[in-house]
């Protein structure tokens, strides 16, 4: 690796207290110092002119489904998926335990995925452990191996990765509390959501926007309340994944005020699209929890701005076009799509440009808070001296149209929800530990440059 000192100059650097015109000195893959913008570089410093662009800490994607290793890596693998991530400004991927097989539910599954990722990823990565009934006995070991937390489904999941029913969830929370772990939950009432989807399939409902009625907002609300109650009773730290509803956001804001150790993740697509996108894109935009009403989408931004929502995850999980229509029944099709390369551009376009979201708040949502919650701080999630030099350069003025057929992802599609979206703001350069891994529209490092990041002590 090139150990030359680098100095990033002429950028607008996003720091916790605002945007500054300081220069960033990088040495041996770390932020060495923040220097006055007029500091003249020494002869052995490589100068990088940011040209007035935004300079921000690289994103930590809290929610990614790589599908690698195992039989489903034809959808996405660690090389293609991490290249897609790098092109969108993600410098650390937090990968979910499924649908890779074996899932990351024990030491064998953890070590296999870690080995594969280390050989293929171009960005750094952390791993979630699994929370299924059979994995409770392995939680402490997975925590010691460095897992950032444990993902469970309160809704029905898959045969290979079953839901965590209430009794097992409470026991998993008790175990997690003993070693200070983090429980992450897909919060939807399993029976009601499943019943609704089967009902709308049986009546041959032709309006895809009714997915919001099949799995109504209150199925999510009930599961959020239940998870918070269980967390309070056990003392477990809990994260609600991809939260979509303002009722849930208000409830969680109040729970936080009461001192409950609960964190909130949403996805950019829930802040951009409403359920009407399903009428246009049909199953290619289908995801769970469902897209909600436009009124709900607009109100969700209030909770983004006020700090109720802590982090953003892509929920990147592509399927091939053929897979998305294999049942010939919208209500039975797979849920999920690829999006890790467009999530930041969507947040800049819809948040910073249209709704006045500050760059500091955006950086906290996409990087700082995740690092603190998941025990990756201060190594990750900031641009202060001593941190890894995970840095992205953003041209906030560039206008462009997202083309899902030109993604670095292994699955390319012209049918996903973001395809054809007009955007303003684009990542031009991505640095991981001081090395430029993406720039000029190309991947600039070899497969396997990315390193595993072990979770440490959380500070949020």
UniProtKB/TrEMBL annotation:
GO cellular component terms, A-Z: cytoplasm
Cofactor annotation: Zn(2+)
Metabolic or biological pathway, per its Swiss-Prot or TrEMBL entry: Nitrogen metabolism; (S)-allantoin degradation; allantoate from (S)-allantoin: step 1/1
GO biological process: allantoin catabolic process; purine nucleobase catabolic process
GO molecular function: allantoinase activity; cobalt ion binding; zinc ion binding
Residues forming coiled coils: none
InterPro entries cross-referenced by the UniProt entry: Allantoinase, Amidohydro-rel, DHOase/Allantoinase_Hydrolase, Metal-dep_hydrolase_composite, Metal_Hydrolase
Enzyme class: hydrolase
Stretches assigned to the Amidohydrolase-related domain: 54-437
Subunit record text: Homotetramer.
NCBIfam families (alphabetical): allantoinase
Family note: Belongs to the metallo-dependent hydrolases superfamily. Allantoinase family.
Protein name: allantoinase
Native source species: Enterocloster lavalensis
């Amino acid at each position: 690796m090139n150990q030359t000192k680098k100095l990033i100059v002429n950028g607008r650097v996003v720091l916790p207290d605002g945007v500054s015109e300081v220069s960033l000195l990088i040495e041996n893959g770390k932020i060495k110092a923040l220097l006055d913008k007029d500091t003249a570089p020494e002869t052995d410093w490589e100068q990088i002119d940011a040209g007035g662009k935004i300079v921000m800490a690289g994103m930590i994607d809290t929610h990614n489904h790589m599908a690698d290793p195992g039989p489903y890596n034809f959808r996405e693998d660690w090389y293609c998926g991490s290249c897609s991530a790098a092109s969108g400004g993600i410098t650390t991927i937090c990968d979910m335990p499924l649908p890779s097989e074996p899932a990351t539910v024990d030491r064998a599954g953890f070590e296999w995925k870690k080995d594969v990722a280390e050989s293929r990823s171009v960005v750094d990565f952390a791993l979630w452990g699994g929370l299924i009934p059979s994995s409770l006995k392995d939680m402490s070991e997975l925590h010691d191996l460095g897992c950032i937390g444990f993902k469970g489904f309160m809704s029905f999941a898959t045969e290979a990765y079953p839901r965590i029913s209430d009794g097992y969830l409470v026991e998993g929370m008790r175990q997690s509390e003993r070693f200070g772990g983090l429980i992450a939950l897909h919060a939807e009432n399993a029976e009601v959501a499943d019943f609704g989807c089967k009902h709308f399939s049986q009546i041959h409902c032709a309006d895809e926007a009714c997915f919001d009625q099949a799995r109504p907002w209150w199925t999510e609300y009930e599961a959020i309340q239940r998870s918070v109650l269980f967390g309070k009773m056990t003392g477990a730290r809990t994260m609600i994944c991809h939260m979509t509803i303002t009722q849930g956001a208000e409830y969680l804001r109040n729970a936080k005020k009461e001192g409950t150790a609960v964190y909130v993740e949403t996805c950019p697509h829930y802040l951009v699209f409403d359920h009407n996108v399903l009428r246009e894109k049909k199953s290619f935009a289908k995801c769970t929890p469902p897209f909600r009403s436009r009124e709900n989408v607009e109100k969700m931004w209030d909770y983004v701005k006020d700090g109720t929502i802590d982090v953003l995850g892509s929920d990147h999980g592509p399927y091939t076009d053929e897979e998305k229509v294999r049942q010939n029944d919208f209500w039975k099709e797979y849920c999920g799509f690829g999006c890790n390369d467009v999530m930041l551009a969507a947040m800049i376009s819809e948040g910073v440009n249209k709704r006045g979201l500050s760059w500091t708040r955006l950086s906290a949502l996409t990087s700082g808070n995740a690092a603190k919650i998941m025990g990756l701080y201060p190594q990750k999630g900031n641009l202060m001296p001593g941190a890894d030099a995970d840095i992205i350069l953003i041209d906030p003025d560039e206008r462009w149209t997202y083309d899902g057929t030109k993604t670095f992802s292994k699955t390319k599609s012209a049918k996903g929800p973001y395809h054809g979206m007009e955007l303003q703001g684009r990542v031009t350069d991505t640095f991981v530990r001081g090395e430029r891994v993406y720039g000029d529209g190309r991947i600039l490092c070899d497969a396997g440059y990315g390193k595993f990041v072990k979770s440490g002590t959380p500070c949020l």
